[in-house]
Amino acid sequence: MKVDQLWTYPVKSMVGGVVESVRLIETGVEGDRLWACYDEDAGSIANARKHGALMRCAAVGDATRATITLPDGKIVTSDSSECDATLSSFLGRRVSLRRLPDQVDESLHRRGASADVDLMTELRTIFGRDDSEPLPDFSKFPPSVVEFETPPGAFHDCYPLLVLTTSALRSLAEALPDSSPDVRRFRPNIVIDTGDEPGHPELTWAGRRLSIGDAEIEIVNDCPRCVAITHAVSDDLPVDRAILRHVVHDLGQAVGAYARVVRHGSVRVGDPVS
Predict the structure, then answer these.
(1) CA-based nearest residue to 249, from 162, 165, 176
(2) Separation CA 109–CA 153 (nearest Å)
(3) Residue extents of the structural domains in the chain
(4) pLDDT, tens digit, for every residue of 112-137?
(5) DSSP label at 232?
(6) In angstroms, how far is the first alpha carbon of the chain from the final one?
(7) Is the dihedral of CA 80, 100, 138, 198 positive or negative?
(8) By C-alpha distance, which of 122, 82, 274, 69 is closest to 192?
């Protein structure tokens, strides 16, 4: 096995980009998800589960500045006086672009008040499940998700890394010939080339450790998928509910695997994985 792709996402829930190398630290990819939109009305960090339009925005940047391109081509930067107004107008919500503070501020990460709907209805909406479909196994998420929208001190959803394989992407394409299960829908940090291995090998790696470049990671468990993978990403990746139906009915509700960093280190495309 070897590293096939490395992805970074400067702004939470927005399209990121491929890079040749990354450094893995405790919070995942160094410099990843340092920015997020904060929903001022809900009092919580915005994400693609509730605000699917975020996935139509693309972002580049670092700790000092983020540059966001909206679907119509308009560009706005984090240091612009028009940034929050532009994003609010696009999302139809009052939001502000926030940088992850250097010191942990738990209040920033807490969940806002629940919507005035039945809890099960809300969960089925978030996870994109039909009434006849099961909700995911919530024990696969860290306990912090009950209280926090993202873990305090980070803007990722649950765990620092998401690992995907070329086998999984190939299997999705073969199973869904009329859909577009593009890698951008699944937002991995690391895509591992698993050669001719069939199916979704990473779904069986829970508890195992992988040596990648100078770093070592541990696979926590598979990644239960929500409605986000059905959202439009671009004109060539429109809304597609069939992908989630396949994931729920044929893949045990998961694509890819969550991981944590065991040993910090640098990783490059082409590095061997063992």
Answers:
(1) 176
(2) 8
(3) 2-268
(4) 876 657 888 889 999 999 999 999 99
(5) -
(6) 7
(7) positive
(8) 274
Number of Cβ within a 10 Å radius of residue 160: 22
- Three-state secondary structure call for residue 228: helix
CA 227 to chain centre: 12
| 5-42 residue pLDDT tens | 999 999 999 999 999 999 999 999 999 999 999 999 99
Length of the chain: 274
Beta strands 161-165; 190-193: pairing state? parallel
The pTM for the full model equals: 0.94
Q: In what order do the strands lie in the sheet with 2-8?
A: 17-19, 2-8, 190-193, 161-165, 254-263, 215-224, 209-212
d(CA 196, CA 201): 11
Return the SS3 of 48.
coil
Between CA 167 and CA 192 the distance in angstroms is 9
